[in-house]
Amino acid sequence: MGFVSPATDYVEQRLSPASICTTNESRILETSTGFAVVEPVSRLTQGQVLLILSGGRTQFAKLRGRALITDDGEAIEGAAAEEVEVMGRVTFFINSVDGDGDNCPV
Question: Do residues 28 and 18 make contact, with C-beta atoms less than 8 angstroms apart?
Fold first, then answer.
């Protein structure tokens, strides 16, 4: 009969984006370059990065004036902006350093 290892009390859980960056209201989305932490938005302010649903697809857009500027440079404004559903605001982007070395200068 052996003794129980005293080290079993000190085993730590693996770190994940969800364990580091989330609160009760936030959620993690996997992107092509890493992860995005998204929280509910109560009030829109200029310069916020938002997760939007437009034309049946989700994408990130920055609020500039009365327009939403998407990642590809498209401006959504006027009647098209009224049909956009704001899913939340992005509080953090966590980018992966694994992958294509050409995009990483280090």
Answer: yes
Q: What is the pLDDT of residues 46-77, one digit of tens each?
A: 999 999 998 888 999 999 998 999 988 999 99
User: Count of alpha carbons within 13 Å of 88, Cβ hemisphere only?
Assistant: 13
The closest of 4, 92, 79 to 51, measured between CA atoms, is 92
How many C-beta atoms lie closer than 10 Å to residue 77's C-beta? 14
Quote the radius of gyration of the chain (alpha carbons, Å): 20
Rounded to two decimals, the pTM is 0.72
Helices (H), 1-106: 17-21, 79-82
Give backbone dihedrals phi and psi of 104, rounded to 5 degrees, phi first.
Answer: -115, 115
Q: Do residues 51 and 31 lie in contact, with contact meaning Cβ atoms separated by under 8 Å?
A: no
In DSSP terms, 37 is beta-bridged to 28, 92
The structure tokens listed for 65 are: 């004036």
**How many angstroms separate the CA atoms of 30 and 80, rounded?**
26
Task: Determine the Cα–Cα distance for residues 39 and 26; give it in Å rounded to an integer.
Answer: 4
